[in-house]
Amino acid sequence: MTAPDSLPPVAQRFLRYVQIDTQSDPRSPTTPSTEKQKDLGRLLVDELQAIGLPDAAMDDFGYVYATLPSPLPPEEAARLPVVALLAHMDTSPDESGAGVKPVIHRRYDGGVIALPGNPDVRLDPARQPALLDHVGEDLITSDGTTLLGSDDKAGVAILVQLAADLLHDDTPRPTVRLCFTVDEEIGRGVDRLDLDRLGADVGYTLDGSGIDSLSVETFNAARAVLTVRGVMVHPGYARDVMVNAVRILAEFIAALPPTEAPETTDGRAGYLHPHHLAAGDPSEASVEVILRDFSEDGLARRKDLLHRLADALRLKYPKAQIDLTIEDQYKNMRAYIEAADPRVITFAHGAAQSMGIRLTEQLVRGGTDGARLSEMGLPTPNVFNGGYDYHSTFEWNTVQNLERSLAFTKALLHYWGRHGA
Ligand SMILES: [Zn+2]
User: Which residues are catalytic?
Assistant: First the structure.
């Protein structure tokens, strides 16, 4: 489809970007994992330069960097932190991103919508209740044969539009470093990100679902490996001699509380998740278990439980050798943010208040690029981009949500401009 001129510019950009296939590929060892991500990267460089950001450039890995200078005199701008704004260009391997045909459903009436390319794909408020919060808005979906790609081309469109809108606006704000990343959907979004080149003090990703949300918390994470070494003899002569590592390992796994599993928890509840059998025969068997909890105490309690289970098995099977190792993986991003610059959270709330909205803090039950950046020293919460039902043919956003996220991001920069020195 061509973008109707009656749509606001951020929506027109969004409709153009989603039609470029940028699906990433977890099986590829290269960065970017798919060359086609650079198709969007090259377009963004051209558009950012046309807007008036002459340093916009893409590196060999496909990352696009550009500077939106502060309107303040240099000595005043130097008193403010440099703010990075990031969005990822790739789309999820879970659903096709080739030949996306966006469809606009004007003034959504709250009913069920069958998508034109595949009438079996129906947006239904009974299954997707958030739709009812957006009645009367202009819904954007795919035609039902692909994902939409709002994750995260909404963020990309919002940031490019922000640059266009603010370049000639003299309301005080910090220098902004824009960064468009690759391979977020396959967990490698910041692997090749050049933090020195980014040159920012604080950051935000625009990759959060829904509206008026800020993600500032992720799990504390640890990884345990339990290895059992048994005593192996021929089964014909095994009585009172064989110690079967597979059976002992099975007892350990069965003792993990089923009510503390990813499949039985949500919200703030953490879990223990046996997710990989690394070895398994009677002489040696081992399992990898991941531990997740939003609180440090909760994570410590889970580690403790694994140690007690291992101790009990050692008592029961003295001839087996049972080793348990637990290593920390990462902390709740809130801990890194609070150590680096907690204003990234408080200013986001302040900016929302200045617009008369209230931000809800969301818990992320998984990793985010912002969490890894926060761990690397750049405190980076995740801001809403308006989209819902990511990674599926049911994905949607609205024209009004794109505008709302854009308005919030501007308010956020202006809040830093007023209070950040
Ligand atoms: Zn995303």
Answer: 90, 184
35 with 159, same domain?
Answer: yes
CA of 83 to the centre of ligand 1 (A): 20
381 CA to centre of ligand 1 in angstroms: 13
Here the tokens at position 242 are 């064989």
- Read off the tokens for 7: 């749509």
Q: What is the rounded distance in angstroms from the CA atom of residue 149 to the CA atom of residue 379?
A: 26
**CA distance between the termini of the chain:** 46
| Spacing, Cα 185 to ligand 1 middle (Å) | 7
- In this structure, are 54 and 173 located in the same domain? yes
8 A C-beta contact, residue 372 and residue 350 = no
Give the model confidence (pLDDT) of 116-140 as tens digits: 999 999 999 999 999 999 999 999 9
Phi-psi category of 377—alpha, beta or left, where left has phi over 0 and alpha has psi -120 to 50? Answer: left
Quick one: 146 and 77 in the same domain?
A: yes
Q: Is it the case that residue 4 has pLDDT exceeding 70?
A: no
Backbone angles phi, psi at 234, to 5 degrees: -60, 135
Contact call for residues 198 and 378 (beta carbons, < 8 A): yes
Q: Which range of residues forms the domain containing residue 292?
A: 220-330
pLDDT of 78 higher than 80: yes
Q: Are residues 91 and 190 in the same domain?
A: yes
Residue with tokens 């990884």: 223
